[in-house]
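Hey Z.,

So I finally got round to the 5-phosphoarabinonic acid thing we talked about over coffee. Here's the setup:
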Amino acid sequence: MSLKFNEKFASRFVSEDDINSIAAKAVEGMNTLTSGTGLGNDKLGWLTLPEDYDKAEFEEIKKTAEYIRNNADVLVVIGIGGSYLGARAVIEAIKSNDYNLFSENTPKIYFIGNSISPSSLNEIIELCEGKDIAVNVISKSGTTTEPAIAFRVFRELVHSRYPAEEAAKRIFCTTDKTKGTLKELSDKEGYKTFVVPDDVGGRFSVLTAVGLLPIAVAGIDIDALMSGAADAMKELCSTDVYENEALRYAAVRNVFYNKGRVMECFVSFEPRMAMFNEWLKQLFGESEGKDGKGLFPVSTVFSTDLHSLGQFIQESGSSHMFETVVKFNECQSDYVIKAQEGNLDGLNFLAGMNMSTVNEKARLGTLLAHTEGGVGNLVIELDKLDEYNLGYLIYFFEKACAVSGYMLGVNPFNQPGVESYKKNMFALLGKPGYESEKESLEKQLDL
Ligand code: PA5
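And the result:
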């Protein structure tokens, strides 16, 4: 197994007895998931995706990615939530969190439609000036406001720049197989479409065209990504918490939760994992946080954030949080620290040492310090940060998240709470049909 879950540094807070006493509940959660008898059981397609993902669509993704690479300087990816986080997380983790600065042989990839900020939109429009562009709009529903506004803009931009036939070849829609605005528009305009499978929800969709097309455009090996996920699918099946790392992780985080640790802090010592942390926050936050239950996911990148949030975690974290650290044993590239004449900064004792060694000692030092401060540290360990291991990690977290959701007694696959802000926003904007809500909301806001 290429992933190891280590709860040793949480043993002061979570004993073997604690794990044993929650094991049956974890197994029940796992059985509910795999038997398809739980809430949201129409959204379990992601469980077998690594093996039974539509092979023709997969090949088409690779072909299209090559076409985009050969014909565009820029790919604009439009989507929000599960329709953008996974792609961006994988691209930044594998390539760089400054991917666009290094993308000499692959198109720049700009993500938009993940906010309603006009400044962000204008920035991307400016960056596209004088460039050959392609657009991948991703929306299962096709009606989500943020991407819909951005798509209006970029669709117009593409059509204003290229003759109709060429424009149609530069717009790619990832959406529902048969219905919705985007599907209808694509059929009418001749845009190529990719499918968000009916049985895969947004935040579990990174290993479908939703994530795979932008990821492949970035020159990332999607076969290796799927192969890592496929091995995770085969290996994370046991109903023994001591054999199945995903199951034990689900069990341990639920022990923490039951002891009042309601915040889980996802930690990485690699800045390029920052967006992966964002993906994790959505995966766990939207899946578990409902019916008054759930762990609140937060994230940090160390050692950067040890100089901002480290103080709080060290001295005030013990009452409500624990950390889950994703650690890679090999780094992608290293740097040997040199001696400095005069040793002005007193760091010559590091001369000849790899920077990765210093980073690892920082991790170990932090682990001991935070544990001492009362914050339990769970460690998820992988060989290296590459496509295979990331695919494995994605599947590991998806499975652990679904099992955890069932352990909490919620439906891990819906997100009813997301509608509330939308309703208010539409009413305040004067959308037809929302007249009475508008009046009441404006009164509350003293408008
Ligand atoms: O996980 C989810 O289902 C959500 O985060 C959606 O991905 C997000 O709301 C975007 O929805 P859509 O793809 O319909 O535009």
